[in-house]
């Protein structure tokens, strides 16, 4: 049985739609909304936190220039700070949760309180509002 390279799968799933076409900024923003909805619906604080983090990561990706990068930062938060300096503080703040999100996703024992998950989800919602404004997307109240 041939072994699949997970890095290739992750890259492909992040840059391609289910129909095989490239995913644009609005598609990534839509994917962020899906994760945010899952976070809101999650009863478990760890699941709420991880889904909120995924939403933030997708939203950040919606603002990044597509195509291959020659040099420079490769992680979404460093790229966001470099390509959209006005959101550098958000990139730093949200990027600070990367290790915790990875640990929780990997099933490592980490304590995420309901309050922390709720506060993080709230912050991610504010970040997503800023992303939507930059993309020219009207929010639910509009």
From TrEMBL:
Region (Disordered): 1-37
Location of the SAV-6107-like HEPN domain: 39-131
Pfam families, A to Z: HEPN_SAV_6107
Compositional bias (Basic and acidic residues): 1-11
InterPro entries, A to Z: HEPN_SAV_6107 (IPR040891)
Protein name per UniProt: SAV-6107-like HEPN domain-containing protein
Species the sequence originates in: Dietzia cinnamea
